[in-house]
Amino acid sequence: MPVLSVSYVNYRNLENKTIDLLSKEVFFVGENGQGKSNLLESIYFSAYGNSFRTRSDAEIIRNGEKNFSLKTLYREDSGTTNSIFISYDQNKKKIEKNGKSIKDRKELINTMPCVLFCHDDLDFAAGEPEKKRFFIDQCLSMYDVMYIDINRRYKKILKTRNLALKEGSYDMLDIYDMQLAQNGIEIQRKRNNTIFKFNQIFGKLYQDITGIDGVSIKYKPSWTVKNEEIPDLNEALSLMQQKREMDKIIKTTMSGPHRDRIVFVRNGTNFVPTASTGQRRLLAILLRVAQSIYYSQLTEKKPVLLMDDVLLELDPDKRQSVTTLLPEYDQLFCTFLPGEPYERYKKSGTKIYKIKNGVWNVL
Hints:
Shape: globular
Strand order of the largest sheet: 2-1-4-5-6-7
Low-confidence stretches: none
Largest sheet: 6 strands, antiparallel
Structural class: alpha/beta
Radius of gyration: 22 Å
Number of helices: 8
Mean pLDDT: 94
Distance between the termini: 21 Å
Order of helices and strands: EEEHEEEEEHHHHEHEEHEHEEE
Number of strands: 15
């Protein structure tokens, strides 16, 4: 079991002590606003070095305090116990793994591979294109450190090119275009390959739950050539050249992976606009299930699943069906309201905590 315990100091409303998480399944039960999601967030924070709820680490500090820290113990498959220590003080974040300072959060990849299920996942199915791109990029980043570097380079070059367009400084555009094309093509190739493999998992999951067949994810790259294939370098440069005058007028880069679109289709038609709210919610949940399966297939490792009240949004039959489709996991953390039938999902060794005002007690 990867996560053994987490120790808190001034972390949101959670008490300053250590919680024992040594169990394959751990349930947090409590009313809204008592700290259930804070516990899940702390595990995610330990795995990736940031929060899934805010971009400002300062917001995590308990009211009236000036800093916070987390210390997480986890165990590798080999049996070795490791520690992750994260502190935030005076607007500076410090991350250590086994006492050694980590300068780049990508060094945490594969430390505790977590897949998060939460309400905001609905954006991956029905939100803006940026949210859907983020989901695919996240799937890639969970196991492909090189993709993180490529994506970062692309965004840095894009920012520089956009600044040049805004300032009317066009002398370097040819160089920026070459750099964008080199990195952008690789991003598109990796996204295209990921979505192809993802579809082999996702469509069947959706059909098994709903009985609706033929639902798949379609990738629509901003740069395409015949038969919607990913362009080579010269073709990408040509496509950018065709957009350059428009870029100058709009003062921003109008083509590239940052303009890619990802849509859900059925029988060649966009599925989401006609889907019910329940069908959209199920799309989002099954995307996460597929992400877990995809990660396991590629790495032969079992993920840690974090489920933040997502089962509450499904009818009882769908809840049961989704839980049976979950891939084999290393550990499962779920939050429940007190009135929810969480007893139905527990197993013989499940640890259940009641959470109230940031304090936890074993049920």
